[in-house]
Amino acid sequence: MKQYALVVVAVLAALVAPSTPAAGPRPKPVIAVIADNQGTEVTDFLVPFAVIADSNLAEVHAVALHEGPVMLHPSGTAVDLPQTTASFAALYPDGADFVIVPAMHMPDNPALARWLRDQQAHGATLMSVCDGAKVLASAGLLEGHTATGHWYALKDLRRDYPQTQWRNDRRYIFDGNIVTTSGVSASLPATLALLEHIAGREPVEAYARQLGIDGWTPDHDGASFTLSGRAMRTAAFNWLAFWKHERVALTAPEGVEEAQLAFVLDAYARTYRSSIALQGSQPQVRSKHGLSFHSAPTSARELDAAILQQPVGRALDAVLEQIGREQGLATADFVALQLEYPRN
């Protein structure tokens, strides 16, 4: 009778125990895209998340450092993510296979550094996007590696982290369990390169064609990006010409595609003339892959929502062309410079 009771207790305990993924090989690699609630770069974060989610080649999770909304800069958009580092740890106590690290408002956040070191200790490959390299370097994770970052930050990175070999001739660099990218716009080709690393060339080529992308080679002329006199004059004039300043609004439909949204928010917020607000019919707009963006009505000039209908591979070109028509070619080029986007 005692043995029977012990069996019953064991069965009941198994039924009420929290569900966690079974040990052993995973059906698909698990990728966490991490965000610091205090400030995370919008394109660095949303583009890898959306592209991986659409590819169906890996399991991707949008993970906030803490509870509460995440502020996406430079647009100032707030978003609620499905998971935090705590809930992700409950689901995957053995950690992610890959962690993507965008640029952060606080690159030396100790809580984030601890979490990244823990993920790496569990075997994760860490991939920084743009100034996410500062996050990895600050956490001591780039020592002895070859890496890259945003063109404007490389001088300081070389000075502050001499144990890392910094390059400016690659859009992305794979070096063991560390991947780094150049500026913001490298988020797209680098994500495709990561998917190729995971799944091989053929399925990623087919997927890239759907996105309107021909290739994602690492070749890059980082030395061509510089703060020229023209760029400085454009920035100064746009900043000082207050009579030309405007607030624009983007109406995002339910199910909006995150990468397309990111390019519009990021580009308009970098003109030094425009600030951009997200508006929708509800206080929150739920995106294609389950993120909840805060929105509010506004009297600002409304952008044509057709800008959100471009294929992901054409989305940034389309928004830069629109800015060029509205605010001039010099402003569009200045935005592209900030995004480290090579315009043909």
Description:
The structure is a single chain. The chain is of the alpha/beta class and 344 residues long. It has 2 domains: 30-220, Rossmann fold (3-Layer(aba) Sandwich), CATH 3.40.50.880; 229-338, Class I glutamine amidotransferase (GATase) domain (Rossmann fold), CATH 3.40.50.880. The chain is built from 12 helices and 17 strands. Helix 2 packs parallel to helix 7 (187-199). The protein is globular and about 55 Å long. It starts with a helix and ends in a 6-residue tail after the last helix. The model is unreliable at 1-22 (pLDDT under 50).
Question: What is the topology?
Answer:
Blueprint: H1 2-16, E1 30-35, E2 40-41, H2 42-55, E3 59-64, E4 70-73, E5 77-80, E6 83-84, H3 85-91, E7 98-101, H4 110-121, E8 125-128, H5 132-138, E9 146-147, H6 154-160, E10 165-166, E11 172-175, E12 178-181, H7 187-199, H8 201-211, H9 229-240, E13 246-251, H10 258-269, E14 274-279, E15 284-286, E16 292-294, E17 301-302, H11 312-327, H12 329-338
Parallel strand pairs: 1-3, 1-7, 2-4, 3-6, 7-8, 8-12, 9-10, 13-14, 13-17
Antiparallel strand pairs: 4-5, 5-16, 11-12, 15-16
Helix pairs in contact: 2-7, 2-10, 7-8, 9-12, 10-11, 11-12
